[in-house]
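Fold it.
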Amino acid sequence: MEPLVLYRVIYGTSNPSAFQKSLLHIRPAILHTHCRHKVINRDYPAIIPSTNGSVRGTYVHGLTDGDIFRLDIFEGDEYERVKVKIRVLDVEGDVEGNGNVEGEQVEVETYVWIAGEECLESGEWDFGEFRREKMGNWIGSREEYDDVDKAVNAQGDDPTGGRGTNGSITEKLNSNKEKEVLGSAV
């Protein structure tokens, strides 16, 4: 997961404090025997098992139970959190993986798509395109997307699947945070 999106999901902002950032250790990693496809009419990808595939991603160490709770809500029922083995990258190569130097193997949990392959495009999901063209919808860094998100949500065809800055999943996460603050204030 893109770290800015991760921060937004677990901290409520894509720009958390230095202290909050220090709680997580994020390193590049590769997941073999899986591939990543774009979900039809959505901005986000789906990881599915594949004998010949590999997925470049991030290894995040230091997540709390509360962080995982928020990630479970964010990922929704289209995904299942499963244990997999990844390789941490000691050296990160180019976009195609040329120059990657794999290091230690680590057992982790990741979110694997379970909503059916018929919902996926055949090609690989393009992370670079997501960063260039879509990420603002996900991290809330550009105010001009607020009106777009509201209009898209009103039509019921949200390309973030409710995960955008004004999406239904984001609203649920925010309401849970309010309950946590109220509960801790008592």
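The CA atoms of residues 79 and 113 lie 4 Å apart.
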